Amino acid sequence: MNKTKLKKIEEKINNRIEDKILSLKIFDEPRPNYISDVTIIDRVLEKTVLKLFPLFIRPNFLTIFRFISIPFIVLLLLSENYVFGFWLFIVSAFTDALDGAMARTRNQITDWGIVFDPFADKLLISSVSLIVISKFISPVLAGIIVAIEAFLIISSYIRFKGEVVPAKTAGKIKMILQSVGVGFLLLSIMLNLPVLIIVSTYILYLAIIFALLSLFVYRSI
Q1: pLDDT level of residue 156 (50, 70, 90 thresholds)
Q2: Is 54 inside a domain boundary?
């Protein structure tokens, strides 16, 4: 099958998917800048990793993958298979950056994605926190992280009365720090390097600070 035929098939699939999800768009064009602003990181991902994804692959597909991956990550970590657990966690966490960049650069932002993307992040981090952070650092630290994530969801729903509200800068930085902190922790377990546990602990405390900023200053999820 030549490239022309493949391109036509891709366009047909893309058009059908577009028709199905068109009703899920949040705002009429033009969208408010704070939702659709494309960052430098988005552009870098667009020119590199996102080139590997055909147009018929939507940001929401990556979010769904993150949901599906969570039970497998949990099972791997519970069975102490930290190598595979680490790599699957890294891939799953990286899809958070990819789906956001894909949505903004390809103009594929939907209310489903805005609601469930941060929820998938919180479920991923909370699950891993309860397993590895509580075991190798502190149950108190793990409890604080999970409690803050739960409180962010509840307070956001109460504050905005169920309206769709995209996460802002503090919330995004918090997720990055949480993912890096957990990544260092899993590396320390795999490589038997206690110093990385210390690094992970400080990064996770910094993530808590940004979580509180997200809650009390930026008023975002």
Answers
A1: low
A2: yes
